[in-house]
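anyone seen this seq b4? input:
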Amino acid sequence: MTRTLLLSTFLTALFATPLAAQDAPPTLSMDIPVMIEEAAAAGIDHSYTGPWEYFVGGGAAAFDCNGDRLPDLAVAGGTSKASLYVNRSAISGELSFEEKKDALPDDTRDKVTGLYSLDIDNDGHRDLVMLRVGENIILKGGPDCSFTEANRAFAFDGGRAWSTAFAATFELHLPFPTLAFGNYVDRSAPGSPWGTCHDNVLLRPQGAGGERPDYSEPNVLTPGYCALSMIFTDWNRSGEPALRVTNDRQYYREGQEQLWRVSPDRPPRPYRRADGWRRVQIWGMGIAEADLNADGYPEYALTSMGDTKLQTLDDEAEADRPVYRDIAFDEGATAHRPYTGDDLKPSTGWHAEFDDFNNDGRLDLFIAKGNVQQMPDFAAFDPDNLLLGNAGGGFSEAGDKAGIALPRRGRGAAVADFNLDGMLDLAVVNREAPMSLFRNAGARTADGSARQTGNWLQIELRQDGINRDAIGATVTVKSGNETRTRKAHVGGGHASGSAGFIHVGTGVAERAQIRVQWPDGEWSAPFRVFANNFVVIERGATQAQYWYPPE
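predicted toks r here
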């Protein structure tokens, strides 16, 4: 195809420089997490399969569905059945899961591309949103990992689109969450797939509330440019979320990356050049958001074919002018080709997520990698990235040393502490290959010696009534002269997400102060806590509570 030939010529020139001359990896001085793959031993046997409609997608949702605070796993299957795995891991021990085959209604398990979990109807049970090739489905969660289809109960029309992205937020004036669905190619349009991207959809609950939400009046977000990831983000600290969308230029003609204004008092519209938005065209596949320098303004990692963007607000940005610049090269986060092996063709990035895998207090960046199918101009051996945060800023690759450089085609992923030992584990959904499940077994220093990872906190937020899990809240953790921020959100990644404890590494600090900015902007009192604990913060409480996993 013409596009492929042009792309091949461009990338051959871009990647012709030898690895040693272009981007030889620096010597690592930080602790490297030891990630042990044990999916089969843990009882997980699952692959994401299917023809070209399933080249994208392949997500997983990590969330607690039975009240024991151990993260369970719901996994998309494509043409295979979606599955729910209940976490039976021993605390601080090896990972163990049991497939609960009757948990998901059987007629909802086909054609699933992605999964996200949140409590939609404020009943204290997390529900499950299933993205599909065809009708999307909302499953209402109940006790002991039970689920029932709720499309009709929630007046939700799942449509017939090919859905590949999702995000949710709680707007302050509404009794239930606002949902956004991102769609890919419109397969019914003439000339499909080229230039036939489907519109996206924003769903605000109707009416004054009640026991059940009403999503009967969708807002169409047009134009759509083949979305593969989206996230609600308070990019300018206004207290009002906007919707960030990353799009796959493989199929759009005149599209770009998008940021949508979704103010409640006006129709949704994308920010444009006149607003300061700079046109960016990439093979956008995943989004990760983090406030890397704790200044209150988030940065964004955008995965793509060939390179990863890392965007930060430019000095020209103003209160309502989203002017961004790319700092991926400066920060060592381009991740543009395999970091090990002899395949020097460009990489294909999918799920992205910022987290602290070695508990040193600095955010790391995980990226799932994998060829779309058998694209000859892109790397066939394309291992997942684990970019560890450096003490002086920036990132250094440690995926091979950590043990995650497997010959598989990664797609979605879920990062969670599956055995509640304070160290983050990793589940990766692979295309036409077994799912990977990595247990974090501690740290190894650059000289090969072993040690425990740094200190940590895991924080659970609670509030009564609407938005029980405080989606949209900001958590700040201060220890010594260091301040770290985390955001409670639903969306981003690639067709995947995690819900539950908010994990923060504190490095050498054994004590910390936590403050929470709740979704309506109100700040909590400061909570002084000891590290290496699970902390539960109830809105309005004067003290944080410790929760101890059962022995």
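The helical segments are 2-14, 19-23, 39-42, 328-331, 399-402. The longest strand covers residues 436-444. kinda curious what u guys think
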